[in-house]
Amino acid sequence: MDQSVVIQETLAEGEYCLQAVQGMLCEGDSRQSRLLGLVRYRLEHGGQEHALFLYTHRRMAITGDDVSLDQIVPVSRDFTLEEVSPDGEIYILGSDVTVQLDTAELSLVFQLPFGSQTRMFLHEVARACPGLDSATRDPEFLWLSRHRCAKPEPELELPTPLGCNSAPGTWPGCATIGGGDSNFDGLRPNGKGLPMDQNSSDQDKPESLQPRQNKSKSQINDMVRSSTITVSDKAHILSMQKFGLRDTIVKSHLLQKEEDYTYIQNFRFFVGTYNVNGQSPKECLRPWLSEGIEAPDIYCVGFQELDLSKEAFFFHDTPKEEEWFKAVSEGLHPDAKYAKVKLIRLVGIMLLLYVKQEHAAYISEVEAETGNKGGVAIRFQFHNTSICVVNSHLAAHTEENARRNQDYKDICSRMQFYQLDPSLPPLTITSTSDVILWLGDLNYRIENMDVEKVKKLIEEKDFQTLYEYDQVQMATWWTLHFSEKCRAPAWCDRILWKGKNITQLSYQSHMALKTSDHKPVHSLFDIGVRVINDELYRKTLEKIVRSLDKMENANIPSVSLSKREFCFQNVKYMQLQVESFTIHNGQVPCHFEFINKPDEESYCKQWLNANPSRGFLLPDSHIEIELELFVNKSTATKLNSGEDKIEDILVLHLDRGKDYFLPVSGNYLPSCFGSPIHTLCYMREPILDLPLETISKLTLMPIQTEGNRSQLERPLEIPKELWIMVDYLYRNAVQQEDLFQQPGLRSEFEHIRDYLDTGMTDNLSASNHSVAEALLLFLESLPEPVICYSAYHNCLECSGNYTASKQVISTLPTFHNNVFKYLMAFLQELLKNSAKNHLDENIL
Q: Which of 466, 605, 721, 793 has a C-alpha 20 to 30 A away from that of 749?
């Protein structure tokens, strides 16, 4: 677990624990466990100082009561922390990391576990070192005086290693500062040694990593309040800067030989889902979570419609989160102690992950992500198996099957889990996850079958026939769960799974719980997880390292490309085009990367992307690269005006090898999306019927053209494209429920775009929601918004005064003024029908 949360409980105001790691203090043959925390203190004059806090602990540290401050080491100019090789030991990649801490007053040796937690800790310590700049004032560490008499509990007193509490100038039973000198002047730097990194830490920790407010011990119930567990996955070799090509090869070989040093062990997973309909917990959840089953090793519990209030959509916090979290915590199996690994919530969707306390050390790489399509997910590593748990609430109603399918695809494609190494591409739900558990109110139904027929088949237990009419048409057999309503029974609350070595033991609903109109559902699984045999792992690692020692790396890497020129024809606004090619590697392992050209900030133009943009190739291996071209609001205007073209040159660079130059060309079909309002008003014909020179001239035309109308064709009052969409909505959608709140379909947006750009003679054929979304995308794509940027400040100042607001609007350019009045008239029509469309001023 990330024990910086535990250390934070022991700190004073103004002190913040950036990172923590648990290790062993080594003195001769003696090994004593210590918790190391890097603490930052912000000074009044704006600077900051750092110190290492060392703690003893009597058990796995869960709260601040479990640790006792033993020693403080200021991070001064003479502070160094370097990785060393123990005497007589051969360095083996992936083994524990031995580091030596030196200051003018003391020298300590620690053994830290190999993994991401240690890497992050060492990285933060390196950033915290003051550096050698003589212009920077020397740290004084006056804030550390408050800790000098922080006495530990008597039962925690351990034998003190030489050079720690036995240093001169310290008092027995008190925390030692530095080497023990009681005079703070003795802590001033003297220039001894070189720090790990000369860059000063001047960046705050991301907001998402800030610790939560402390809860009372009765609320905690000895649960781990943390989102990250200590890494134990030795097979996950990290790409630290001190490593390089060699260790990337080691990582690749270890992954290939995983079966040589791992074995399959079954663990019991409880997966539960509950749509609580905005209610607070009114009954004990043990009938759902723990009765009649053995204590699971891992709990994955999801909720939907946690809070249906309007406030839940605007504010992050909701009291329902704490209420249901407490109810779940109290309902877990009483025969085991559980640690909370992660809680993630998006509006009314919440997902909780718990693990048995004895398994907590084997959970690693915990990442949580929320999507904008009604889903949240937690991805983590358990031993050597990657697991992704998804909780989603898909679109309701039988006829919305297509939208449910699209929501599912969006969740899969848009949710990304960023890796600890920022140079590595993010992971998706389906990529590199060994096990996927998907739960929630999925809203898939039995369709094309009347109510009585469905009930009859249920009574006859003819599930195979029902399965044939199931919208989701899963590939795995499930026990059906239905809710009794007037319409056809709906199999909405589901638990799905994908992966190897998975056995489903039970799957049932709990009809006795009456809090919601939905019933909680749970499924028990035995999941085979790959567990590392330490001895076999070490032997495999040594064998790989020995084989790599024999490799000759002097040759220059060389690759062949299946394609070197790329042409994208008829590129359209917000329509993805993809061209691919294959890199075939020769006999030498190599890193490849697309690099920036001179004086350019990126390796490609904004509308282009290479996936992956960097990577590693083993000998005689290959990889497929996809070049993705996508024009959006930020790039469309310059392509319309001709200031930019679909032209670029990619530079593919091989580490220690040559560069390959890949030209990219194509043509862009101008669109009303991304065109200025006044430009469209002067286009009486569809944009694709005009010559490119005319489009360029009109796009580059200054916004104030009223005084020069004699030289141009008589303009329209508003863009015809805007009129077409608003008129369509006025005629068809003024009474449409959830207008502007429910997204449209991608295929229909493309049809609407082509209709506007080409001036099709047929009637516009699309759903109301798709036209509404196209209207919003059109307004969002305007390079100068309806209310011009120059008028923003005045608009905000007089937003509460109708007369003053009217005066500001009157100063807008003529075409912008017309569009504003036209849109306001349309919104007024929508409000006249608010009884049916449920729209109000706040929503609009």
A: 605
